[in-house]
Write a structure and sequence with these properties.
By secondary structure, this protein is mainly alpha-helical. Helix content is 69%, strand content 0%. Helix 2 crosses helix 4. The protein starts with a helix and ends in a 6-residue tail after the last helix. This is Helix-turn-helix domain-containing protein.
Length: 71
């Protein structure tokens, strides 16, 4: 059903939503990557880092560094 509505399977849809939320948190807070990973339900920040890199071709820290914010 999910694939019919979105063109993605359930896991892909969940990952997409997680990455959107992660990008928001990385760009608008000064929480650590580990804190953000935990907030998003990851038991290990390494798993979050791997998913983020796989989906965006950049690490969470590289993504954050692309913003010139002084939080």
């Amino acid at each position: 059903m999910t694939r019919t509505l979105t063109g993605q399977n359930t896991q892909q849809l969940i990952h997409e939503k997680l990455i959107i939320k992660a990008k928001e948190r990385l760009s608008t807070t000064n929480l650590s990557v580990s804190e953000i990973a935990y907030e998003l339900g990851f038991e290990h920040s390494q798993s979050f880092n791997k998913l983020f890199k796989d989906k965006t071709n950049t690490t969470p820290l590289e993504f954050r560094a692309s913003f010139n914010y002084r939080l």
